[in-house]
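Page 42, continued from yesterday. The earlier attempt failed because a stray header line got pasted into the input along with the sequence. Redoing it now with the clean sequence only.
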Amino acid sequence: MIPHVEIGTGYKGCLDYIYDTGHKNLKDVEYICGTAIGTTADELLLEFDHTYRLRPALKKCVAHFSLSASPGDGRLDRNKWTEIAEQFLQKVGFDLSQTLYTVVRHGETHHDHIHIAASRSSLMDQLGTMVDVIYGLFEPAGSLKNSTT
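This time it went through. Structure tokens are written below.
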């Protein structure tokens, strides 16, 4: 896997991008997995906003990851992408039972890739414990870079 990471200040821009809002599905968006219920950027924004309210002082509240399959891997199926996304999130410090996240595939390019939007505030903690993905990224990203398992 080849990861790319952005830590952003707002959910709206990230969700609009990964769900291709306003572009008539030019990115060929396919839902893969997640803990969020919504199926559009606007519906998801309401859910993600709840986690922001748990920790409003957190300026960079959303983690946006894109993971690309290695060139020789071809197109991975939905189950494989689910396994990879969940493994990646756990390795960078997210507890999947306490994290609001959504994963989609963009099919408009020649390389197979997914996008993950994850709240950095825990769902279960009234104080909105922050996931510090920066420290978890270095070793796991390297370990995933050459692996599709």
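Notes: The first strand starts at residue 2 and ends at 8.
Reminder to self: strip header lines before submitting.
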